[in-house]
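User: Fold this; tokens only.

Assistant: Input:
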Amino acid sequence: MMSEIPEFSVSLRPEYLNDLYEVSQRRHALHVNHASSRPLSKDYEFIGLVGEAAFGMQFNLQVDLTDRPGGDNGTDFYTSMGNLDVKTALKPINLFREEGKAHAEKLILAGWDQTKRRVDFYGWEYEATIVEQCPVPKDFGYGIMNHHKHRSKLRSMGDFLGVFDMRELLYG
């Protein structure tokens, strides 16, 4: 089991954050009034994109910066070791898997610390395991039903590195 503190963090340069913010604003404009849009917090597109970018930097994976009018179908990175989705939040307490939506095989929990311009990584889990261990989804106050797993119960990022040889990851 993992601890309550992040296992590793990735800091991002202000210039890169500005670029990511521009991409997130374009994506936000494309998704206004879409049924699949989930604006759960201010700058939610930016927060998610920052987590993806930090993960990509850490593991030498290419981040998709295209506008994505149809969304990403629940996957941020297509790799030879399976599909990955980085879930980034301002308060990363639970790793969520939304009921009824497409998801990657492996979900990674990250937190965005805007003050420090840093993304903290807490752990990961197989999508199927989250559903199996939390078979009855819960509404956390936003009208969205989620299977969930608390960050203290996630697999460690060390296990992630042990299970998946990151040197062999391929871009999608």
